[in-house]
User: What shape does this take?
Amino acid sequence: MGRTRSEWVERTAKAVLAVTFVTFAVVGSPISAADPPLLTWPDLVKRPRPAPDATIPYGPDPMHRVDLWLPAGPGPHSVVLMVHGGCWQTRIADRALMNWIAADLRGAGVAVWNIDYRGVDRAGGGYPGTFTDVAQAADALRTHADAHKLDIARVVAVGHSAGGHLALWLAARPKLPAASPLRTPDPLPIVSVVSLGGLPDLEATATSPDNGCGTKVVAKLVGPTRADPYADTSVPRLLPLGIPQHLVNGREDRIIPFRTGTGYRTRARAAGDVVTLHLPPRTGHVELIAPETAAWSQAKAIILRELKQ
Assistant: This one.
């Protein structure tokens, strides 16, 4: 995308550090000095970055790209549909933030379809562009499955932070209102979702100033001038999804409040869905996408189990 790796690392680290600083100031006091420190964004992004096996366009914008991670062997390969976060903003993160866990899944014999999309801060992003982007990127998996020996009979969606919202929204597409411009016939079926520190309830996020993304970004995402901007954008409005949903959250997460997981679980269970909240120890926001952590080990085990159901 016209920048070197070092420029990407510097840009990402500065952006997420700014978000982390604001959130830390609002959410609460530091963890005890006797505890080992939680991971920071620079701890992750300064590492050597593994590379995907192919990059596939699904549209004309430079953000209309999918990175494909292919395991060894002839296939067919199980597939994870992966969605990055970054507060729905391109300036904060792109799909490369997921490279480390995508590589780890590839090593475990799983193909990864790691999508990108236009954030609300990019021309064409927001409503409906951000949503139509992730939908088109997901559906493009069907087009390329045969060529890359991908088994799309059981696709598990995995999203981090704002990407957790988008992963759940992709699974909810069959429930979109008939009049919604986001509704399309025959969306890619998703059999399970693993949300890593996600923000599925946009209405709750918009009234929670202590979340690391802030509240103004939600208005840009949902199209605030519409009569009911959450009817086709916020996942609780589309419940029940009818599939297993796994929420992996950290009590020490200072970017996404822990209640975003517990609150959504309550609403989804009340609607009849099977939703499990997983609480790995000593987990902030970065641990959720760092392959050496207990949080990712737990999430990975869930993903592999869901792929084999």
